[in-house]
């Protein structure tokens, strides 16, 4: 399955680091069809409600925002959008 991954931010250090993490995970997770795009347009920031870049948007869903970039959380955000993974990843989570 192809993933549409957008890294939204103005190109700061944290935006570049998030891009690096995503690029590494795409290779590590064998996701050659993933489309990764760095977005710095103000309209996209507003569209997704990003107030604290960088933000990670996967398949149109805002997954994370802010400068704390934890590789395991980025990987989890990608995995959640893979087919058959969303049900598995939501099981056992304490939401509520």
Characteristics of this structure?
Glutaredoxin; 4-stranded mixed beta sheet; 4 strands
How would you briefly describe this protein structure?
The protein is an alpha+beta fold and 96 residues long. Helices cover 40% and strands 20% of the residues.
Question: Can you walk through the features of this model?
Answer:
With 96 residues, the protein is α+β, with helices and mostly antiparallel strands. The chain has one domain (4-83): Glutaredoxin (3-Layer(aba) Sandwich), CATH 3.40.30. It has four helices and four strands, in the order E-H-E-H-E-E-H-H. It has helices at residues 13-28, 42-48, 71-80, 86-90, and strands at residues 4-8, 35-39, 55-58, 61-65. Strands 2-1-3-4 form a four-stranded mixed sheet, sandwiched between helices. The longest helix is centred in the N-terminal third of the chain and has 16 residues, at 13-28.
